[in-house]
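FIELD: query
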Amino acid sequence: MAKIRLTKNELKKQKDSLKMYKRYLPTLMLKKQQLQGEIRITDLRLRELQVARHQLDESFKSWIAVFGETGFFKPEFVKITSLRTGIGNIAGVAIPVFEGADFEIASYDIINTPLWLDAAVESMKQALLLELEAVIVEEQRVRLDKELRTTTQRVNLFEKVKIPETRGNIKKIQVYLGDQQTASVVRGKIAKSGTEKAAR
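FIELD: result
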C-alpha cells in the first residue's frame, strides 16, 4: 500500500477516488451479469447446434447404405466458397456473428445419377452450415469468457481492494487531522492561559 500524505488535499483526493469507485462498480457488476447471461445463451446455442448435427447424422443413417453405390457421391461435390460473418457487440465486446456460407456444387449429370444424390448434397450443405456456425459461436464464447475474466477482476479489485483501502485512508487522514485540530485547540488554550497569567 502506497504511503499517503495526511493532508486535507489528500483527504479530498481519497474521497473523490471513493466516489469514482462507487460510481463505476455498479456498471462493472451489470456488465459482469450481462456477460454471464450472454455466455449462457452461447452455451445454449452450441447445444442446439450439437443436437441438430446429431439429428442430421441420425437421418443419414437411414439411407447411408446408398453411398456405397460406386462413384456417385464424393465429398468434393460440395465446396465452401465463402463464409459470411458480421460483427456484433455485446457489453462492449466485438464478437463475430454467423450470417451464412456460400457453396459451390460440382456439376453432375442429373439423368445418370441416382435420386438420392440431390438429398445427399443438401444434407452435406446443412452439416457444413452447422459446423461453421458452431465454430463462430465457439469464438463468441472465447471472447465473452475473456471479457468476463477481465470484468470480474475489475469488480474484485474495486470491491475487495480499492474501496476498502480508500475508506481506510480516509479514516486515517480524518483521525490524524482531527488529532491535529484538537492539539491546536489545546495549544491555543495553554498559550492563552499562559498569557493571562503573565498579564496579572
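FIELD: remark
The first strand starts at residue 78 and ends at 90.
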